[in-house]
User: Fold Pyridoxine/pyridoxamine 5'-phosphate oxidase from Streptomyces gilvifuscus.
Amino acid sequence: MTDRHAVPLDPAAMRKQYRAEGLAESDLAATPVAQFAHWFAQAATEAHLFEPNAMVVSTADAQGRPSSRTVLLKGFDEQGFVFYTNYGSRKARDLAENPNVSLLFPWHPMARQVIVGGVARRTGRDETAAYFRTRPHGSQLGAWASTQSSVVASRTELDASYAELEARYPEGEQVPVPPHWGGFRVAPRTVEFWQGRENRLHDRLRYVAEADGSWRVERLSP
Ligand SMILES: Cc1cc2nc3c(=O)[nH]c(=O)nc-3n(C[C@H](O)[C@H](O)[C@H](O)COP(=O)(O)O)c2cc1C
Assistant:
């Protein structure tokens, strides 16, 4: 064992002064999706964040017990935010019981976060199949090999299941879309844009969906 863990790191002493550049109501796009597109482009092309499409997806089961995990955003437009997963996974089972979901984009190096609250629905099979075809061969096999979120006896068992699939569908051979795998589209109801500011006086602007389909913007106290 090395002593690489010996340096005391006290999280209470970690304090960053966030940037002064703020977010004003007049800066905002007409819809939260358009505003998201703007910040997402800045995260990717100006701040060069590693995987800016990585988001924390929080679900709750029928009893209200929450759980969170990181998932990659694979598409977004005015209809919502799309990710792909195993329909037998814990998150998917939660969403079948309770479609309310929260998505959080933690863009820490820019002192920004975006938090989406909404309702998740499965994407259509055609849309799922179209995306599945764009995945690398190995990821396609991985989607078949894993019964996500279930207990697996050993790593050996997982590797053996992948090897079997690899023998059945060698590189170049078309892999069918697993019936237990697909997308969710999260239709936003609220989207908060958080910009860190000096002295903890952060900007928090939240779009809220109105019954007529328009958006209201409100400022939240930091
Ligand atoms: C950076 C990153 C990206 C991930 N992307 C996905 C994804 O797109 N889809 C997915 O099902 N799991 C993804 N995972 C794995 C999930 O975090 C999680 O382990 C898995 O989906 C099972 O979650 P559940 O048991 O809560 O349903 C990702 C993990 C990380 C760290």
